[in-house]
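Researcher: Re-running this chain for the archive, since the previous output was lost when a drive failed. Same request as before.
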Amino acid sequence: MISEQEAVENQTAAGTRRHPAEKQQSEQYPVAQEGAKAAQSPPEVTNPDLESLLAALEHERISGLAYFYWEQRGCPVGSPDEDWFRAQRDIREGT
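Model: Regenerated structure tokens:
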């Protein structure tokens, strides 16, 4: 419970009383006080864990398809790049 003195001290510029636990809007939302530019452009959100997971999944897909292509060609010795690049192209193009 707050005293009458504390309530008076917590008056806003408009003259209304507020509880001490209440924050002014500028305290709750500091971004709003930074200007229109900050309000117009949301912060860039990146997730390195998600990006590395997606890269690992793509690598696994390419690896499996390249192995399939290599088997289809009769498992020749050498030339793994041919199958890898074909698989990479096919996956990235969605074919």
